[in-house]
């Protein structure tokens, strides 16, 4: 086998990706001829006379490119190529078979066992250099892909660490948000208030609560802040600081008298105050809907404001259901917006249900919302259930309706049972 004279344009520094070329041929003269050209082109070269010896070298050293004769004693070139491909490697190895065979079937067999290129003997130096250049391009792309994968893996590891830290913070944030609802149930004489709050994520934009309002009254509220996640939860925390406390110094819905007594402000004034506060003092793009009610524990009179929130429902003692309110505007959208109060009267055995739209807009597997009719069905089905057991039954029914426990929106509600 003779290597013909190469053109000068092929005499260039090889890329550093090809660290070692392995020559495998049982002819020492042929190896010497090929080695002279490869070293002239700047490659580090190793050589051996058999495929078995070549495999030992490949196991010990990172061979990037192999030039192997087809016909050799013992293991031939295709068999060597197949064995080489079976070796565990961190990177790709480019394999060129030297052959005097030109039959298509033989070429196909060589490709099947993993050969990348073929060169016929006698080897033309320019053609050999071109085949090696093709191999270098493949190795370069493979190297770039491995480097990108390495960077991607490192980035993913950093993101995982960051995600784990955020997840831990969100778990703590969920605990803090749940702590905004200090009591999930409280009795007021013969009446009882029960709360439900289940964010769809770690934290949510819903808030429910109650507060003693003096003069034998109790305040109830259900809030739904626009959006989801951390920013919405921060708004609910701010609202909790304005509505949850029983002290008039910390609750916008209360005011103190000169004699130390506590009185409830009209709900419409409270919501108007919240609207001004959000538009004038809080720099946020969020707005919220609210149902704020003030119930007299003696007379059963309920004065309420519906500001964009779902309609409150009264389930009478005989099981019939009434929806109250006229809709109204959300809070924090329009300066100077007015909010009108409505009045309802409760009789012993009646109960009031205030909820966010996470319940009425709960979707079925066919994407059909529960709606007010569906809510009526749930209320009638569970008319005999009281307190926290009522909400447990409601959640069970919602999960059955949705076909999943993973709700797309926060679920929150207030149940006030008038004794």
From TrEMBL:
What the entry lists under PANTHER family is as follows: STAGE II SPORULATION PROTEIN E (PTHR43156:SF2), STAGE II SPORULATION PROTEIN E-RELATED (PTHR43156)
* Keyword line: Hydrolase, Phosphoprotein
Under CDD domains, the record lists: REC_OmpR
Domain Response regulatory: from-to ranges: 20-136
**Protein's UniProt keywords contain Phosphoprotein:** yes
User: Which Pfam families does the record cross-reference, listed alphabetically?
Assistant: Response_reg, SpoIIE
Q: Which residues carry this modification: 4-aspartylphosphate?
A: 69
One GO biological process this protein is involved in is: phosphorelay signal transduction system
* InterPro entries per UniProt: Bact_Sigma-Reg, CheY-like_superfamily, PPM-type-like_dom_sf, PPM-type_phosphatase-like_dom, Sig_transdc_resp-reg_receiver
A GO term for molecular function: phosphatase activity
> What's the protein name?
Sigma-B regulation protein RsbU (Phosphoserine phosphatase)
